[in-house]
Structure formats: C-alpha cells, structure tokens
Amino acid sequence: MSAQEYAFVVLAVVGSLSAIAVVTSTNVVHAALYLVVALLSVAGVYLLLGAEFVAWVQILIYVGAIVILFLFGLMLTKAPIGRDALDNQQRGVGAIVGVGVFAGLVFLIQDAFPMQDAQAFEPARGTTDVVGEAIFRSYVLPFEAVSFLLLAALIGAIVLARKDDST
Amino acid sequence: MIRLPLVLMFSALLFSAGVYGVLARRNAIMVLMAIELMLNAVNVNLVAFAALLQQMTGQVFALFVIAVAAAEVGIGLAIVILLFRTRESINVDEVNLLKW
Amino acid sequence: MNVLAAEGEVAFKATTNGIWFVEHAWIVVLLPLVSAALILFLGSRTPGKGAVYGITAVGAAFVFSIGGLWHFVEGGGPFEGSIDWFTIGPLHLELGVLVDGLTAVMLVVVTAVSLAVHVYSLGYMHGDERFTWFYVVLSLFTAAMLTVVVSNNLIQLLVGWEVMGICSYLLIGHWWEVKENSDAAIKAFITTRVGDVPFMFGIIALIAVTGFTTTNIGEVSHELGLGEVSPLFVSVAALLLFGGTVGKSAQFPLHVWLPDAMAGPTPVSALIHAATMVAAGVYLIGRLFEVFLLADEWVLTVVSIVAAITALGAALLAIVQDDIKRVLAYSTLSQLAYMVAGLSLGELGLTAGFFHLFTHAFFKALLFLCAGSVIHAVHSNNMSEMGGLRKYMPITFWTMLIGSLALAGIIPLAGFWSKDELLVVAHEEHATWLFVVFLVTAVITAFYTMRMVMLTFFGEYEGEAHPHESPKTMTGPLIALAAATIGVGLLGAPQLNAVFGKWVFFEEIHEAVFVPWIAGLSTAGALLGLAAGYVLYRERKARDPLQAPMGPAWNLLQNRYYIDEFYMRAIVRPVRDTWSAGVNWFNQVVLDGIVDGAAVVTRWVAQLVAWFDRTVIDGAVNGAGEVAGRTGNALRYLQSGNVQWYAVGLFVGVIALAVVFIRVV
C-alpha cells in the first residue's frame, strides 16, 4: 500500500459515506450538500488517478453548476422535510435491489480483476494540452455533437419552463 | 500505485447508492441527485481504466458524460418545475395517472 | 329386303302382277298410322272434322291389300323382309313383314271392314263432340291390327297387340261420362290383360328356344322343328300362348268382357269386337301353328274343350237377351269358338277355321252395322222396344236378313260354306263330339238369329220414336257388306275349286271336299232353328215364350251363369278391397313412416350437432376470449403508474442479464 493508495482509500470512504447520506438524508438541502461532498471526493480521486483536467471540469460543472441548479430547483418547488416525506413505500425493495446490484457488481469485479492479482498502475497523463489534443484531433466529431446537444437542451429547457400565455 | 479493484469497488458503491436513491426517494429532485451519483460512478470507472491503459479515450469520454449530465439536469429540472406548476407537488408516487 | 323361297312341297310362281304390293306391304301399315297422326293434329281444322284422312288412308290400304291378294291368286309365294332394329347382347330385334296367303287374306278383311266402318261412322257419329278423336283412335287401331297381321317377329306382334288393347279401351269408353261405359272399358282392358300375361310368358319361352338370339317367327318355328326342345316345354309354351287367345278372343273363362263392351258405339263393336281384334287371337294360333302342332296332344284337346264350352254356352246365352247388340256379342263369342275349335283340329282345320274367320268378319260386321242403324232410328238398344220396323227401314231390313241367313248358314251365303267346311274337317278328324257340338250350336244359332229378326222387324211398332231409314253414309256400307256376304262364301266352295284353300293352308294344300250328307244335315238343322224362331216369335207377347218352359234355366241364362258375380266375389273384391287396401296401408304407414322417421332422426342428429356446436365449439372460442380477458385483468395490476416501480423491474432485469451474459454464457 502506497501513499496514493492510502489517500485514495480515505477519499473513497468519505465519498461513499456522503453518497449514502445523499440517498438517506431526511432533509433535502442536507442531501444536496452531501452530494457536494461526494462530488468533491470524486474529483479528488480523479486527481489521484492523474486526470487533472477532468477533475477541474468536475468541480466546475458538477459542483459549481449542477448542484446550484438542484438548490434552485429545491427552492422553487418547496421540498418537504422528514423521513416519510422523502421516501416512498418501496424502501425495502429498493434496498434489496441496491444491495443486489452492489453484490452483483462486486462479484463481477472480483471475477474479472481479482484482488490478489491486482497490480498498481501508473497514473495517467491528463494535462490540459494532452486532453485538448485528444478532443480536437480524434474526437472532434463527438465534440461537435455534444455542443449540438447542449444547444438543444438549452432551447428545450427554456421552452419547457416558460409560462404559458395562452390558457 | 493504486490497485484497480479498489477503484472499481468504489465506483460500484457509488452506483448502488444511486440505484437505491432512484428507487426509494419520493422527491423528484432527490431522484435526479441519485442519477447524478450513478453518472459519477460511471465516470470514475472510465477514468480508472483510462489510467490503467494509458489512453486518453476514457478521459475524453468522461468529459462528454459530464457535459451530457449537465444538459440532462437542466432539462430534468425544467420538467420538474412544469410538474410542480400543474400538480403543486413533485412526489413521484403521486404522478400515477397511467395506473390501472 | 330379300325374298325367301318357300319351303315344303308347294311350288310357287317366282313373280306375279301383284308382287309389288306384297313387297311393299309395310305401306299398308303406314297409311292408317299417318292418317291417325294427321287427324290428331289437323283434324279439327279440316272441313268434315278429319274423317276424310281416315277414309282416304284406309281406302288406299284396301286397294293395296287387294293387290297383295292378287299376288297369291296368281299363285305367288310368301315374302319376308325386315330391317335391323337394334341388338341387346345376343338378342337381335328387327322390324319386318311376313306376307303369305294368310296375311294377305287378313289384310283384305281388316281394311275392308275398317273402310266400311269409317264410312258408316260419318253418319252414325255425326254431331258427336269427340268426333275427331274417334277417327284418330279408329285409324290407330287399324294400324295396330295391320301391324299384328304383317309382323314377322314376336315383339312387333306384341306391340301391335297391346296398342289394339289400348284403342279398344279408348273406344269402348268413348262416352265415358256414363259410368257404365267407363266400367266396361276397364273390365275389357283388365280381362284381356289377364290373358296377355301368359301370352308374354309364352313369347319369352319361344325366344328362349332360339337361345335368346332372335324373335323372328320363322326362325322360332325352324328351331322347334329341329326337335331338340322337350315336348313338355313346347306344350307349356303353346298353352301360354293360348292364354292370349283366350283373353283377346274372349273364350271361356275370359269371355266376360265382350258383352259389356257393347257399351261402346256400334261402329266400334262392328270393327273391333266382331271382325278384327277378336280375330287376332285366332290369327295368333294360325301364325304360330308349328308350336301347337309340336306340342303334346293334350294341348290341342284343351283348346277344343275351351272352344266347345264357349260355343255352346254363348249360343245359349244369346237366346235370352233383350239387347240387340248383346245377342250379336254372344253370337260373336260362339262363332269365334267355332274358329278356335276348327284350328284345334290340326292342319286340316287351319284352312277351315280361317275361312270361317274370313266370312264371319263380313257378315258379323254387317249385322252390327244394321243393328246400329236400327238403334239410330229408335234410340234404344232393346228389342222389346222395337217391332215392325221393316216398313220404315227397308234397306236395313233386307241387308240384316241377308246377314242373319249367312250367320245361320243357309246356302249359298257365306256362312254355309264355312260352317260346312268345319263340319267336314271335324268328321275327317274323327272328332265326333266336336261334330255334335258344332251341329247343336248351329241349330241354336239359327234359332236366336230368327228370334232377333222377328222381334225387330216384324209385328207392330209401338214405341215413341219416329223410325226412318238411315242416311246414305250408313246404308252404303250395309249394301257393300251384304254383297260381300253373298260373294265371299263362294271363294271357299268346293264346287268352285275352293280357291281360298289355295291361299291359306299349312304346308300343303288340302283339296276341299263336298260331303253331301253333312251339308244336308247342317242345312236341315239351320232350317229347324229358323222355323222354331219364326213360329215362337211371330206374335209379340208380354213375356218371352221361352220363359215358362225353361223355368230356372231361364234365370241361369239371364244371369249369365252367375260367372260375373263369381269373378266379382272371388277375385275383384279380395284384390281391390283387401290386397290393394293392404298394400296401400303398407305404403302409407310403413314406407312413409320410414321416410318420415328418417327425417325425424336426421333432425335429432342435427339438434345434437347444433348443441355440440353451440356449447363445445363456441364455448372454446368464447373461452379463449375469456381467458385472454381474465389474464389481462390480472396482469393490469402491474401497471401501478409508479415510475420507480418500473425502475425496480428494470434494474433487477439488467443485473440478472448482466450476470448471465458475463458469467454463464
């Protein structure tokens, strides 16, 4: 276990706990804030893995924009407070399914990449210029497509959310 | 330096939490948050493998996922606002007009 | 058509002046047939209502027949010609003519009497509402009789025979509005039918002799002559054929129809029931004479006995009749029996029997037509309502007298020569009992004939009608027939070479012999009978002079020996009321019941099938729909409307599939 690994384990624990807190919290605003913590820890993991650009984009967009959107949404829709108010009757089934999913995934991971044979690997080179090169050389077409998608999303959001003048 | 299975398990945990949140939360925005968790788990996976294989593909893909996630949250919240306007509540288990 | 040379010892001339008429004898048959069709289709629109076709056709046929007879007068031989009709397996059917002396003579008789009757009917049936139809059937009958006479094969003969039966039925029942007449017609038809059934079996037996290959009479006779057939078979066949004669020629016991047949118009009685149809039975025996000769002796004995009974019995019945036509009917029965008896005497009797047929046809037809003339004048058949008519109807009186004397057998009229001939043959064949019967019957015949003449023409007329002489269309034929009566007898007179015997004979010509003592005996008997009749009936009395002396015998005769009652009780009633009714019941109840029952069963089955269709099949179909509906009803609870519930399903499925695909597959 190297130092990076230790750091990773700490970040992973924090992230996991906050993720669980997101889905089990009784207060929606607390849940949103726990989401921030989870997202930040994920960004930390990216950094440990050597993907700097992705980590910064994560913080910028996810933490900076998306969570703010969530908070705005919560504000506009008068979210309720309380355990039963936040969870529906499928709690039991959902827990089972969630645990099942986790078990399944762990099984698959163990099958494909057993812990005993695992080898540590070098972090990636994820500096901005390298990522930029990759995007604008090999993946320029998906890049354009995504920009198109964002345009559509923008227009769509405006159309959906505007007030109807005709009643 | 980091062993791969650990990363993958972290991502699995995030994903499972997201699944529980999608299935068990009543508030629509809570469901959207859980979906974000799931997307993040996928991203972690992508980046981990990109590091393992020393390729850029995984990171580029993760960027695109983030972009799409942003767009999706925008639209999703627009729909939630619309739902709130018509029904005064955004509990997903009250949106069941298509039941038998 | 081919000409056969005659077999036997007689030599014939190869060709004569009349041979054309013989070779084309089929025209004689065709002429009345065509005229029947013409009268049927055009008669009602022709002036004179179609009688002209019939008279012309029969007149032409008569001329033809004279031409044919001329051939035999000059010594010509028989002629046979035929065309193939069709073949069934080995049996070969043909249409053909066989013309020998017998045929030629018969042709003359039939056409002459038919012509006389055709002309006579112009006057007698004048004004009748079915005048045209009468002439149609009259012509058709003539054609049928001619068919029988010229036919060379059994089937053709049978066809003509049966058509004659139908025409007789139609003509007897000409005035069918009166029930008696239609009853008489049915009685005639059925009684002759009873005789026709054995006749047909006889024909089949004869065809069987040839091995079912041909129906030709010549060939049948040839086969029989070979002697390979058992005599018993031939005897039975002969007896069966005689059945036809018994029926058609009204011999005992099937004689009952002829007196009743007098219900028909008098011209019909003259043609059919005196001269032609009843003579067909006699002709049959003559044509198939080989069969009778090759049969055992007892067959001809049976024939003689039947004929003798008929002759004597009918003559006795004629004594007590009041109806003038019935007297003549019984007289006909008696004279036919004479002919049959003559034929039963063998080869010698053939010539004599047919000579009597020849002469009898003329004078009996004459008598009937005279009777018709009398009936036409006084509008009644009964002699008790007549009397003293000789002042009013001289022509009728004189012609009737000639006919009566001929019937009684007075020289030199026709009846004398033919009866004398029969007596001679009976004597030569040593058939003494038949000789005696002939003689006694001759006496009785003379008696009732005179009785008839006395009651009708002598005494005073006390009736209410105004008798007058008949029109020329009626008296003309009377005079013609009277002349024939006087003349034809001479054809068989031995003193004049007995030419008749040279035309009609069996295998060899027999010289006719004149035996003086027989001739004297018969003349004496006839005069005895005539005198007795004259004396007894000279004055009219309220009751018949014979009634008292005869006592119960009179009643027996009046009731015709009670034979008719016997038939009614023993045969007609059981068949009609019991058997026919029983068969009818069987048909209505049992057979129709079966058919109806089948229908009922079918309906049950149909209902069963319907139930099956309704319950099982429709049930299955409806059930399928029900199951689909219920399943849907049950499954719809999956649609909770809750999106997260759907998501649960989604995730579970995905995980399962993922594990399956990655690990298992």
Summary?
The complex is a heterotrimer of chains A (167), B (100) and C (665). Chain B has 100 residues and is mainly α.
Molecular structure report:
The complex is a heterotrimer of chains A (167), B (100) and C (665). Chain A is mostly helical. In chain A, 76% of the residues lie in helices and 1% in strands. Chain A is built from seven helices and one strand, in the order H-H-H-H-H-E-H-H. In chain A, helix 1 (3-24) runs antiparallel to helix 2 and helix 2 packs antiparallel against helix 3. The model of chain A has no long low-confidence stretch (mean pLDDT 87). Chain B is mainly α. Chain B has one domain (4-93): Helix Hairpins. In chain B, 78% of the residues lie in helices and 2% in strands. Chain B has helices at residues 4-24, 28-53, 57-87; one strand spanning 2-3. In chain B, helix 2 packs antiparallel against helix 3. The longest helix of chain B is centred in the C-terminal third of the chain and has 31 residues, at 57-87. The longest helix of chain C is centred in the C-terminal third of the chain and has 73 residues, at 563-635. With 665 residues, chain C is an all-alpha fold. In chain C, strands 1-2 form a two-stranded antiparallel ribbon. In chain C, helix 2 runs antiparallel to helix 5 and helix 6 runs antiparallel to helix 7. In chain C, a hairpin with a 2-residue loop joins strand 1 (79-88) and strand 2. Chain C is built from 26 helices and two strands. The chains are: A mainly alpha (167), B mainly alpha (100), C mainly alpha (665). Strand 1 of chain A pairs antiparallel with strand 1 (2-3) of chain B.
